[in-house]
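Give me the fold.
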Amino acid sequence: MFRINRPALIAGTIAALTLVPVASAAPPSLGALNPPPPADYTCKAVGARTICTVTRHESKVAEPQTELVCGSGADEFTIYDNGDVESRLTRRYDADGNLTSRVEHEVWSNSFWSNPLTGKVVPYTQRGTITDELTVPGDFGSTVETVVGENVYTDPATHKKILRGVGRVVSGPDGLLAESGKHWDIDMFVFGDTSVLDGVCAALS
């Protein structure tokens, strides 16, 4: 999906568990995590493992998307991206301090694509979850990534949905593994179908 989200209840056992001491290995020092998290993460030990989290806020203002081009010749223009995104990120490390997974939940607001030549805009909504599972702990080269969510663009004049990405995509070190739903970005960037942008280009022209 273009960039563009299981709790379990266990009842009746808490009292019994509090009576039983649990032995666990000491967690690794935060400085020994592999790979170490970025400096803005907050980490804590959970048993012998470590969890690191951070919430980030980012704004895009007229950011050119050089891979998204409409028209040709004198009518050619690059689509610009605008919007605010809140991301909640989590990294999990095993008892040896090696990264096993990372998860990002993101929600976009006030978001739209624009054509700086005409001043026209196409608003969109986007939310999703990106989950990276490292099949070899600590090795990003072994990552299997799962993306779920939605990314929907609406023509402000007709109020019709003119571009959509929704569903689930799974990718591994060698490329696309599975896809369910509809994903304009895969149609365009993997299969070369640039016609997926026709509705957006028409609305922005």
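The two ends are 25 Å apart (CA to CA).
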